[in-house]
Design brief:
By secondary structure, the chain is mostly helical. The two termini are 39 Å apart. The longest helix has 16 residues. It is elongated. It has 17 helices and no strands. Helix 15 crosses helix 17 and helix 16 runs antiparallel to helix 17. Among the domains are: 79 residues, Leucine-rich Repeat Variant, CATH 1.25.10; 94 residues, Leucine-rich Repeat Variant.
Length: 265
């Protein structure tokens, strides 16, 4: 069914599967089969878009077994993405054993249905599963509002919240709120802020990144060097000149490493 080349072909295959009782056998295995049989039944019912198995699959999403539960979630998204988003978004965010990358792969074809619940979850700073919401928003490239992003970038927020916000910041108008985090006491925040400047930074940000080449934390130095090498408006000759003018040996070495990585990539 997954290899069918058109919606019509998929519908024809589903009709054939129903005509031979695949839905009945699958629902039986879902309830009474062994683990492998249950997983196969779950996958089949999702492909069949079998609404009759909805309640049984919802029950499976609560299973302790993360493989069983996430495949049940996937089947429900295939059956009715809008209903799954309305009913299961809180569970999806609460299941820390479901990998963000796996969830994002499931939601990608149906991201429109989950956009509003995820954006609403990200709008509440004190939400229990805020970070997971933001990670999914990042993975699905959903448009978080300017106001919501500003709230998340507030220096009073927890480091993990600021980092998640920096990962999705792609608007140059946010730069005045991103630059102060280059001096954040948490090195993870400083490193992520440096990385953002490599994406959306402006000419004056070169002078803000240079001091980070001598940061006490290796990862901050590395991110700053990567950003300087990756900024589109700096030529390689300018970067080499910058490196030669650095007085700190560790800063020179780090920028040299980033230059070498770019040249060999």
């Amino acid at each position: 069914m997954r290899s069918a080349s058109s919606n019509e072909a998929v519908e024809n295959l589903i009709a054939v599967a129903y005509s031979v009782g695949a839905d009945r056998y699958s629902r039986r295995y879902l309830k009474h089969g062994k683990r492998v049989e249950c997983l196969l039944a779950t996958l089949t019912l999702g492909h069949l878009r079998d609404h009759a198995s909805w309640d049984a699959l919802v029950l499976q999403t609560m299973a302790a077994d993360s493989v069983t539960s996430i495949h049940a979630f996937q089947a429900l998204v295939q059956i009715d993405a809008a209903a799954a988003a309305q009913q299961l978004t809180p569970l999806m965010l609460a299941r820390n054993d479901w990998a963000i990358s796996h969830i994002a792969g499931i939601l990608q074809p149906a991201h429109a249905a989950f956009m509003l619940p995820l954006l609403e979850a990200a709008d509440e700073i004190r939400a229990a599963h805020l970070i997971r919401s933001l990670r999914l928003i990042e993975a699905l490239q959903l448009p978080l509002s300017h106001i919501a992003t500003l709230k998340l970038l507030d220096k009073e927020n927890a480091s993990d919240t600021i980092i998640a916000a920096l990962r999705i910041a792609n608007d140059a108008s946010l730069l005045p709120y991103i630059r102060p985090h280059l001096q954040h006491p948490d090195w993870r925040v400083r490193g992520q802020a440096a990385k953002v400047l490599g994406r959306i930074g402006e000419h004056p940000d070169v002078n803000r990144l240079i001091p980070l080449l001598a940061d006490a934390e290796w990862w901050v130095r590395y991110r700053a060097a990567q950003s300087l090498v990756g900024i589109p408006f700096l030529s390689m000759a300018e970067i080499e000149l910058l490196r030669n003018n650095l007085s700190d040996r560790f800063a020179r070495d780090m920028l040299g490493q980033a230059i070498a990585e770019r040249q060999t990539s």
